[in-house]
Amino acid sequence: MEYPKILCAAIFVVMLSSAALSAPLMSTTELLIRLELAPSLANATTEMKNVYPFIASNTNLQDTMLLLGMVHTQICTKNMQLKDKLSVAYIKLSNFISPLYMAYSYEEIQGPQHNVLTQLLMATSFYLNSTASTLRHEILKNGFSVPGGQNLSEAQLDHYTRQYLQALVDNKLVTLVITDDVVKVYRNYAILYTLNDVIKQVYTCVTASQDAIDYQTFQKATQTSTQSNSPTEN
Question: What start and end residues bound the annotated signal peptide (predicted)?
Answer without folding.
Answer: 1-22
